[in-house]
Request: fold
Amino acid sequence: MSDQDIKDTNNAAVNANYFWVFLGVLVTFLSYFSRAYRSRFLLEPLGYKPKLKNVYHGVMAGYIINYTVPRSDEFARASLLANYENIPFEKVFGTIVVDVL
Reply:
């Protein structure tokens, strides 16, 4: 980058409207939280009530794992939740399939 590019980048960062950045981060967090809550909500009729924290971490781990192997997040989330909450893998994976459809 040239010196002028660095100055322009710094100027843009100083003069940016960070309200929109904060709003974007908030909406993103709410979407992740709602996906975790929806997964937890689908397991309740089966007689399981996992901790929202564990479901949220499973969703986030699924996003990270999905960067390495595409479409592997469903398997990773189901296996993590099955291990942490002692829920059968098939039941967790079934609720994820229902959620995706």
